[in-house]
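just leaving the lab so this will be short. below you get a single protein, a line of residues and a line of whole numbers that encode the local backbone shape. id like you to explain what the token line says about the fold, in plain words if possible. thanks a lot i owe you, the record is right below:

…
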Amino acid sequence: MSEDPSSSRSSPDEPLHKRSWLERLFANFASEPKSRAELLDIIKGAANNKVVDQEALSIIEGALDVAKLQVREIMVPRSQMVVIKAEESPAEFLPKVIETGHSRFPVIGESSDDIKGILLAKDLLPLILSGQDSFRWESELRTANIIPESKRLNVLLKEFRENRYHMALVIDEYGGISGLVTIEDILEEIVGEIEDETDEDNEDFIRQVSTSEFILKALTPIEEFNTYFKAKISDDEFDTIGGIITQAFGHMPSRNETVTLGKFTFRVLYSDNRQVHLLRATLANDDE
């Protein structure tokens, strides 16, 4: 006799502490949420009631946000891409590979729009034993995945997982290369900044990601912010940029809320119910 599938579900009379946090969360639903806003309100209520912790709440919010974002909003712009030219020899491009510490590099031909493929740093390890004379581009290049700027991040993440690749080249409406995006870029939108052994010192408060965009910790001292950007933000009331930003919002901001101060637009990348942790600052052009 087959087992009733419903017998594996939690009984309403089952002690609360034996249920998973997800079962406890949905047990609190009076009715199914009709919108994303209603769903978030329920989940935030669950976080306030300690059914889920703040970290889980942040990840859920990030996962929901990813469905709204397009590749153009998080990609590494063309001007910031580290590429290798197909005409270069290992002796010429290896210093770049070592210096950047990246694991994948677009390989270009005569122009930056002429993408030959992707070179994986790990594929260069045999050069240690066999020498550089054995290197042949045709045997080392992986296929470059090309995607449009308008592709949604949740769709791209699914493609990354199903097809088992980690980098895609982004093209604009005219077919030119406009940037690149990696699976790590998407995951950081969900879980926050991912630090590894190749990232810069954790004590660095400000990191430039393009000509006009910067990632900065909310604990960045205002004095250091002013020095870096040649700005004149007052530190009479607050010591950190996070304090200034929270005051500008007038409330504790949530992920992806934005505020403009002078020539800077700040977007909250990570926050909890107590404080802001990470920000993206966009610097307006002087001629705007």
Observations:
- The radius of gyration is 23 Å.
- Residues 1-10, 197-202 have pLDDT under 50 and may be disordered.
